[in-house]
Write a structure and sequence with these properties.
With 171 residues, the chain is of the alpha/beta class. It is built from three helices and five strands, in the order ααβαββββ. The protein is globular, with a radius of gyration of 16 Å. The chain starts with 29 loop residues before the first helix and ends with a strand.
Amino acid sequence: MFNFTFIKRIIFVFGLTYMALPLQAHIFSQQEIKSFASGLIQKAPASLRIKLKKTLNTGLLGIDEDDKKIVFSDAEKQFIIQHVLPRIQEMTWLTKINLSGFGLTKMPEGFEKLSNLVELDISHNRIKSIPFAFFSIPNLQILDFSHNRLELLSDQIVKIAGLTVLNLKDN
């Protein structure tokens, strides 16, 4: 259940907390990242290959280096859901993920292993709940769950100590 006492720390929607965690990043070699990414990219439809190559190699998924959301076709979204998200826990170098508008009904497993993840936009989906393991992402600062179908929010969300922006609008 949601505990409103933690509003002292997080002001709903676009609020800020007074806490921030230093990033403790595991350093992957460019070769390790390129090798992993190239395996996924080779399987991707031609239209998606360039988009994935530009973003996965730089620690981003669904967003470019200028913080602009990448527009995916329905077929590209399906490929990402079927082939990229099941392996998300292996991509611990990712720092920003944008899965807005992917039609997700639940959170993909493995996000809790993304120790370098700073920003997650999972807005405009149909997600009803946030898995308990999700609250252990250590460096998450920006979380956008707006425009979903969240039915409850655990007070465990306060365990995300570095969270500075929480958007829960229109749930």
